[in-house]
Amino acid sequence: MPAPSGGQAPISAQPEQAGCLSTIARIIWIMAGNFALVVFLGLILQRGTFSYFDAIFWATVCALLFIRYADLKWLRGLGADAQPATMKDWGKYARLLILIAGGAWVVVHALLMLFRR
């Protein structure tokens, strides 16, 4: 096959492969982080009052937001649909995570207050 003119390398039609770190970040923000949030909600429910589990729960939410941001900003991350993600996707993820995590946290504490009587 003749070399392209001008000394330029041929352009590959294949998409760039995601690195190992990007794959780990994706697993964390899609599955492991959400599992951890559910576990901490269970521990909060079991504890029955405000505790350090609440702080760990919110630290996990912050960590998930940072991991997703880092995945997009530095690791050329993909969305859950395996398409290249943008900062707009991060904004949607952040709003959804805060809404769902915050709502679940409020519900757990409301149940604790309701059944404490």
Question: How would you describe this structure to a colleague?
Answer:
Helix content is 68%, strand content 0%. It is an all-alpha fold and 117 residues long. It has one domain.
Which features does this protein show?
117 residues, 0% strand, mainly alpha, 68% helix, 3 helices
Q: Tell me the Rg in angstroms.
A: 21 Å
Overall number of domains: 1
Distance between the termini: 81 Å
Order of helices and strands: HHH
E-strand count: 0
Q: Approximately how much helix is present in the residues?
A: 55-70%
What global shape is seen? elongated
What's a quick, concise take on this entry?
The chain has 117 residues and is mainly α. It contains three helices and no strands. The protein has one domain (19-115).
SSE diagram, text form:
Blueprint: H1 20-47, H2 52-73, H3 87-115
Helix pairs in contact: 1-2, 1-3, 2-3
